[in-house]
Each structure stands twice: as C-alpha cells, then as structure tokens.
Amino acid sequence: MEDLRAVAQSQAVQVVAEIAEKISGAKRNQDREGIQQLLELSRRGAIQKVLVSEVSRLGRSTVEVLQIVEELTQLGISIYVQNFGIETLKNGKRNPVAQFMFTLLAEFARLERETLRERILSGMDEARRQGVTIGRPVGATEEKAVFLKKYAAVARQLRAGLSVRNTAKLCDVAINTVRKVKALL
Fold first, then answer.
1. Which of 94, 14, 28 is nearest to 61 (CA)?
2. What is the tens place of the pLDDT at every residue in 5-57?
3. Domain Resolvase/invertase-type recombinase catalytic: where (predicted)?
4. Best exposed site among 42, 48, 134, 155 by fewest CB in 10 Å?
5. Which long-range contacts (CB under 8 A, 24 or more apart) does 176-182 make?
6. Ordered DSSP codes for 133-152
C-alpha cells in the first residue's frame, strides 16, 4: 500500500479510503466486502479515481473485473493500474487502449489462478500416489462436545434460527465451520 500512497501523492490525489481485500479475487463481486465498499463510495460520489497495484486486485474473473471497470467508467471514475501505468479515463474520456489492456490483464489474472490451482491439485495427487496423507492427521479431530463448546456462539445462533451464512458473518467464522456445527447439533 505504501507504493500506492506514493502514487497518490505524486498525482496530487487525496486518499479517501484504503481498501485491503481479505477474500479471494475469484469470488463474485457481491461476496467481496472490499469491492462493495469501493462501489458504495463510487456511487455516493466520494471518489474520483481508484488506484490499484495490478488488475488482479480488482478480481481474478474477467467478467467481474470488467463489470467493475464499466460501472466506475460510467460514474466518471478513473482506475489507475500502477504496474502498467495505465488509466481508464484521460481528461474525463474513455481510454480505449486501457479498456483493451484491462480485458487482457483480467484474463491473464484468471489464467494465472487456474494454472496455480492445477499445479496445487497435481501436487496433491502426486503426494497421494506416494502415500502421503493429505489433510488433518487421523485421530486429530476434536470430540463432538469439545467442538460444540468451542463454537457455542455458533450453536446458539443456529438454534435461534439464523442462516448458516448469517451465522458465519455474525460469529466471524468460516461457513464450513458453521455447517459442521449444524451437522453436530
């Protein structure tokens, strides 16, 4: 983020918010709090320019990235990508080269993610072939009572009728943890 602060200072851009996404860029825009915060600030007219270090910070799905670019462009908000020095708007007008580059760079980010995923799965398959156990060691699971005690707040919310997704958000735990608690109840 420090490098983007320097870019903002060099371009005399006042920083309104710094958004650091903690969820995968492969998720849908609706599921990414950082993107939703960005869009909310944009729709309110609170920002005029978005600075990102690279296109993949906006997402790893070409369609999702292009949706963000299109909405921000229609709102008159320029996106500056530091690693390529490109900007979607120049003097308030669309930069067609930047639009083209965004499409290519978003697709490269998607391909990069797919390649990484394939390598990981291939490595796991090879480890299994060599007899390596993937995942939690046998016998390392917690007993039902211990697990439910550890996640008492989750169990309480589920018993109160809250959905799995809302319980996960409220209790700040993974959805799979909530599902496991629900299965044990």
1. 28
2. 888 888 888 888 888 877 665 677 777 888 889 999 999 999 999 999 888 88
3. 1-131
4. 134
5. 177/151, 178/154, 180/147, 181/147, 181/148, 181/151, 181/154, 181/155, 182/158
6. PPSSPTT-SPPHHHHHHHTH
